[in-house]
Structure formats: structure tokens, C-alpha cells
Amino acid sequence: MSDTMTLRRDSNPWYREPWPWILMAGPAIVIVAGFVTAWLAIVSNDGLVADDYYKQGLALNQRLQRDYYASDLGLRADVMRSGQQVRLLVAAERDAALPGALTLKLSHPTRAGHDQMVRMVSEGQGFYGGKLSSDISGRWYVSIEDPAGKWRLQGEWRADGEAPLHIAPRPEK
């Protein structure tokens, strides 16, 4: 028997081995993800930040007065949707004259570019009809206002469901 040692010599260069590439893949993926994140931050609109936040804060009391007035009138509304067609049923506990048209504002919670304003025309007996500019799904903030800006009703709507949205004035004063 011979006690000679044989040395194994790999003939492949390092770049032909899988382990260096596996170890370099992690940092490479992080760099690509960083560029994608930076691109999204530059291209997308951050609709959550208002430029005139101070003025909006000062006007808060004026907007709350419209909610209080709707509560005093005892207004209630149901919002129903079929495709892009929207119908409202507005009722008042007191004998308040309902206007010939209302404004329905649909505001997306995170994407201001998807917001819609629909003019709702009276169809008689408290029913109003209008058409959305595009189909909606998901969660939306709903605001129904009279044309004079005296009252408004607000609510939060899951537009995916078949059930109508019931809106009543907020009771706090």
C-alpha cells in the first residue's frame, strides 16, 4: 500500500460555482427593490398630505355646522348602486323641502385621483339618480350635500357589497 496523498484540484473558476452567485443575489435584490421603491415614491401622488392644512383646520367648524343642520332636519339617506348607476333615497323627519338636485361625493381613502363627484337629479318622492364616471369597488367615503351647502350627510361605504348604504347624521353636538 502506498501512503501517497492525492490532491483534488477543481478546474472550474469561481464564477462557475453556484455559491458565490447565491450569496451575491441577496444584496442585488435589495438594490433593485430600492430603485423600484424610489421610482414609486417619485411617480405616485401622495394624496394624503394637504398643502393648506391650517386653512382646512380653521374651516372645520363651518363643515360641522352642515352636519348639525342635517341632524336638526332629521335627514336620512340610502345609497344604492347597480354598475355605474347610483340611486339615493333621501327622507326627512321634518317637512323639509328636498332640492331638485344633490351632489354625491365619493372619496377614495388613499387615492385622491379616483374621487368622483356625481350630480344626482330628483326622480320624485325622495329618489335621486345619477351615473358614476367609472365603476368603483372597495372602501369609499360618501358625502351627500344640497346645492346651497346648508347640510350634508356622510358615511363610509363598502361598494363591493350588494346591500345599500344607510346614512344618518352623526348625533354628536
Account of the protein in words:
By secondary structure, the chain is α+β, with helices and mostly antiparallel strands. It has 2 domains: 14-43; 65-167, Immunoglobulin-like (Sandwich), CATH 2.60.40. It has helices spanning 18-43, 53-58, 60-73; strands spanning 75-82, 85-92, 101-107, 116-124, 127-131, 139-145, 152-158, 165-167. It has an 8-stranded antiparallel beta sheet, with helices on one face. The N and C termini lie far apart (102 Å). The model has no long low-confidence stretch (mean pLDDT 86).
Distance between the termini: 102 Å
Estimated radius of gyration: 30 Å
**Strands, count:** 8
Task: Describe the main β-sheet briefly.
Answer: 8 strands, antiparallel
The H-and-E topology, N to C, reads as HHHEEEEEEEE
**Strands in their spatial order, largest beta sheet:** 7-6-3-4-5-2-1-8
* CATH topology-level fold name of the largest domain: Immunoglobulin-like
Low-pLDDT stretches are: none
Structural class: alpha+beta
Range of helix content = 25-40%
Mean pLDDT: 86
Principal-axes shape call: elongated
Q: What is the level 1 CATH name of the largest domain?
A: Mainly Beta
CATH architecture of the largest domain: Sandwich
Number of self-contained structural domains: 2
- Strand residues, percent: 25-35%
Query: How many alpha or pi helices?
Result: 3
Compose a concise summary of this entry.
The chain is an alpha+beta fold. It contains three helices and eight strands. Strand 4 and strand 5 form a beta hairpin.
